[in-house]
Amino acid sequence: MSFMRLPVVIAGAFIFSVSCLAAAELPDFHSATKGKAGYPDNEATSKEPLSSFFAKFLEPPPGYGQVPFYWFTGDQLTKERLSWQLDFLAGRTLPGVNPEEMPQDYPMPRISGVQINNAHARGSLDGKPFGFCGTTYPLDPPLFTPEFWELWAWLLEEADHRNIGVGISDYTLAWPGQGFIVDEVVADPARQGKALKMQKSRVAQGNIPAALPTQITTLERPLPDDEIELYTFYWEPQPKSLDLMDEQTGFQITDKFFGESERQVPEQFRQALNFFFQDELIVGIRGLIWTPDFAEEFQKRKGYDLRPQLLHLFEKVDDTTPKIRLDYHDVVMDLS
Predict the structure, then answer these.
(1) Distance from C-alpha of 104 to C-alpha of 167, rounded to nearest angstrom
(2) What is the C-alpha separation between 174 and 120, in angstroms, rounded?
């Protein structure tokens, strides 16, 4: 049986999530989740003795349970098929698991939610462009069309009636080149990833070339015969890549996918959309990267100007090189 012929039901892989945090440690958790489909009553649990709390791991209360992957790839998505599947999943343990065959005292939590996933071909599908591993398989109705959003809103309403939480994953959708959210974001050059580059050249004294449009700084080293060795550092935008050090990039990706997924559901049923899963956000750029305000942010965090030290990122200069490189990557991670 080919993968494309699989019905829209559950994959063998699943997420089994049990929270080990007492509600008292999450002061805003109750107000944020109260009344949401698939969520437990942590307020009552937090007032019980610790012995009772741990005993619940053997028989988890409603809301602590299995969250199967719910593949939207395959046959046509219809309300009839999805209704049958939701009825099949509601209140069950993972299909294929017989509680009577499990060891005594083995925890058998019920399904508390489903995570909607898409799948991808191995490489190009029908000659279409693709990003990362392969083209996202098409859906019927097609993703993000009015017909899809109408079915999506209906699904959230039906899941809410059954106390099943619904989550949505950006797996295969958050890859540059797929034609979805990331490509919409990087259509703006300001959101594209920026590679840090170095250009080395020899010029005669007094013959310094004009600055590059994206030049960061230039370092000079005198040479014999009235020449100068120039180290020009600049950044270069990389198409189909993301500048994750630019906070607007994250805001836009979140809004275009997760935000739109919520806006397409009537407010009274948004309580069923109770989690999002960010799977593989492919940045599309490797190596040394830059963003226009990187030098300023570096100075704030490390207390010195990185620009005169940029050669250390490309060459071993002296014993301070490892420290400068560590500082650079630390700031990259801090801004991303």
Answers:
(1) 31
(2) 12
Instruction: Mention every residue, 6+ apart, whose C-beta is less than 8 A from residue 61.
Output: 40, 41, 45
- What angle in degrees, to the nearest 10, is found between the helix axes of 294-302 and 321-335? 110
Greatest pairwise CA separation for the chain in angstroms: 88
Written as one string, the DSSP assignment of 302-335 is: HSS-SGGGTHHHHS--STTHHHHHHHHHHHHHHH
Q: What is the pLDDT of residues 233-291, one digit of tens each?
A: 999 999 889 999 998 998 999 899 889 999 999 888 888 887 788 887 788 888 999 99
Please name the residue ranges forming H helices in 102-145. none
- What was the pLDDT predicted at 46? 63
Say which amino acid occupies 191: R
Q: In sequence order, what are the residues at sequence separation of 6 or more whose Cβ sits closer than 8 angstroms to the Cβ of residue 228? A: 202, 203, 204, 205, 208, 220, 221, 222
Angle between the N-to-C axes of helices 146-161 and 79-89, in degrees from 0 to 180, rounded to the nearest 10: 30
Domain boundaries in the chain?
A: 3-185+242-277, 193-238, 293-336
pLDDT of residue 10: 32
